Amino acid sequence: MADSDSPVARWSARYGALLGRALVAWTVTALAAGGVAWFSGFRGAADVCWIAGTAVALIPAVYWTVSTLLHGRAGVDLIAVLSLAGTLLVGEYLAGALIAVMLSGGRALDAAAQRRATRDLRALLERAPHTARRRIGDEVRTIPLEEAEPGDILVVASGEVVPVDGRVRDITVALDESALTGEPLQVERGPGEPVRSGVVNVGVPFELSATATAADSTYAGIVALARQAGAETAPVIRLADRYAAWFLPLTLLVAGAAYAVSRSAERAVAVLVVATPCPLLLAAPVAIVSGLSRASRLGVVVRSGGALESLGHATTLAMDKTGTLTTGRPRVATVVAAPGSDDTELLRLAASVDQLSPHVLAEAIVTAALDRGCTLSMPVDVVEAAGTGVTGTVDGIRVQVGSLPEERLRAPWARTVLNRADLDAAAIAWITVDDVVAGAIVLRDPLRRHAPRTLRRLREAGLSRLVMLTGDRSQPAREIATVLGIDQVYAGLTPAGKVDAVRQEGEGAVTVMVGDGINDAPALAAATVGVAMGARGSTASSEAADIVLTTDRLDRLADAMDIARWSRRIAVRSAVAGMAMSLAAMAVAAVGWLPPAPGALLQEAIDVSVILYALRALGTDPATRTELPPTTAQLLHRFADEHETLRDTLDLLRGAADQLAAGADAAALTKVTAAHRFLVDDLLPHEQAEETQLYPALATPLGSREATATMSRTHAEIQRLTQRIGSHVELARGAGRVDPEQRDDLLSSLYGLDELLRLHFAQEEENYFTLVDDPAGAGRASRHTPESDPAPGRPGSAPHEGTTL
């Protein structure tokens, strides 16, 4: 594809449309003037008008034919040249004028269809900012965008596009990220949080501290990809060329046979007229570019039509684990307090110290504390040391958050935390208060909510083999692979190892590789189709990829694959159906039943209908469409939000069970009572509302009430275990402690209900909540997004320093 910024491309864009409109105006005027003259009795003048229209159209037709042949493609425009010249030779001047209008009008229609199909891609280019407002002291000056440097303070006014990547300086801001993510709802970013270029400020003006130049910013990379997006090299376009390669000699053969049998040049010309397929074969690129445009609307930027179509043919999918199958952002799984300590206060102290740390684990701890309503204090005397973590004074208390040597972790509760973290492939941030080990924060990199459903959709789309590539240890990788049903796991890989694995999997198969980090770039380049999670991935991986997901959602890959298959299907149908109709018209013309002039009108109708059909690729394949009533979508959003809140409180169950396991004393009863109160006051009303409101609403889109029957059975089990725990609490209150005879059954109920609820939440989120975008969850996930790899020296405990998050 020619560079869209080249002088030739700019000249073509500026004057090509004008020449096309001028050609349409000339041929239509000549046809109309000839018609008026003919009906007025001036037959000679009518012929002159029609000859003029035909002769002028013949000039660009010859140019298009020669240009096509020079580019090594089948010259189906040669049929148009022969039909135009033929009408002049046999005196069918009206037919020639009709073909001229058809030819110019078809080109104009195709250009309009291309503009319609590329509208979303052009929107990316047109909204790119060219200037920025830089503040130095009290002076704000508008500068060319390329002069913005990291560290500059930029002012972003209301309604403006953020010019470069940076961080919010002063206030909480409201942003519209739909151009990058495809998500329509606004998100908020607080002071210090990262903001990507290309988003729109929909709130009050704010100041941005630039962290990258314009050339290295997010939006610049997306714009560069959009400039490359095109359909010339798509395999389906080459397929249309192959159709044309046999269509051209077949047309000449039929025209020659018609002349040989009838000795009528008029019949031969009539065959050429109805065979003129210039706009017809352009329907294939219209369909492919329509697919590119629709994909960009969903936050999928595709470099070329070839990449889009190859995605539709893929059979093997290789995926990096971190940031692709998992969120790439660690979350606090649980806070464990030493006996005599309070876990909420420990989380508050740790988050207060971590406020000033740029580390990815610190951001997760601060986020968890804020989500749980903790009021943070400003620390003093903060020191961050490599290999240790952060130490500071909070409200007169010396607090350290980070790793600890093995010899300080001998207490039974600490050993329990270590064992659990090892089993769960989690990282640990230990908390010391005045040099006493007081607790631990366990963090995990959770699976993406849409990952299981996305992988099922991709298998349905034709992928027969799913492979995971990771630099992480084998145990956590295999655990995720088991949950997702992945066929093969390659663990402990270096970047070179990932390349070797992709090449090995790609032998004899069309392979897609998905990754998000700098270390994934070589593997992306080695795959047939490289897909970068560009919303938070590196520039290197985005540049090496054929497709970039500008939204942080893996399920967009499945959407792109659906679009690829639908676009190719529409493109092939357009070309085949159009040529089939042309062949039928050629047969009718060859036997003398279709004169040149009516044949020209018929061919125009065929071409117009086929191009309009090709624009169907802008829509959704009906087979993949799931219609949700607005009220059902609102319910799904509501219960997804409630899940986010309830999940943070589920730790009450395990915490109560752990306390009871340590000793059936009054403190254990207090914990168990608090857990039961949470179940009765918060959890059961949520489950009951799902049963009576959400599940009936899902019956229609899912096909029947049976689709939620297993979840209803789980609700009943949750209620049964809650009642069982309540019975134990009532028995224990009289004695002020849990009776030893109750202890085993109560432990079983608490641990069992904890695991049941976590599984139930995951099932609902995977099966139901993924039917709609989750703006609330996505908005929260986008806060505290790490901009780089974890800083050195902020590991978990020593046994877990190798865990990749």
Briefly note the structural class of the backbone: alpha+beta
Q: How many strands, what sense, and barrel or not for the largest sheet?
A: 7 strands, mixed
- Mean of the pLDDT scores? 77
Shape: elongated
Layout of strands and helices, then pairs:
Elements (H helix, E strand, L loop, with lengths): L6 H33 L3 H28 L6 H14 L2 H25 L1 H8 L4 E6 L2 E6 L8 E4 L9 E3 L4 E4 L1 H4 L5 E3 L4 E2 L4 E2 L4 E5 L7 H11 L6 H28 L2 H10 L3 H4 L1 H15 L2 E3 L2 H9 L2 E5 H5 L5 E7 L5 H12 L5 H12 L8 E6 L3 E6 L2 E6 L9 H13 L2 E7 L2 E9 L6 H10 L4 E5 L4 H11 L3 E3 L4 H11 L5 E5 L5 H6 L2 E5 L5 H6 L2 E3 L5 H36 L5 H19 L15 H18 L3 H12 L3 H37 L6 H27 L4 H28 L7 H7 L24
Parallel strand pairs: 11-18, 11-20, 18-19, 20-21, 21-22
Antiparallel strand pairs: 1-2, 1-3, 3-9, 4-7, 4-9, 5-6, 5-8, 10-22, 12-17, 13-14, 14-15, 15-16, 16-17
Helix pairs in contact: 1-2, 1-4, 2-3, 2-4, 3-4, 3-9, 4-11, 4-23, 5-7, 8-9, 8-22, 9-22, 9-23, 11-22, 11-23, 12-22, 14-15, 17-22, 22-23, 24-26, 25-26, 25-28, 26-27, 27-28
What brief labels describe this structure?
single chain, 805 residues, alpha+beta, Calcium-transporting ATPase, cytoplasmic transduction domain A, Rossmann fold, 5 domains, 7-stranded mixed beta sheet, 6-stranded antiparallel beta sheet, 29 helices, 22 strands, 13% strand, elongated, disordered C terminus
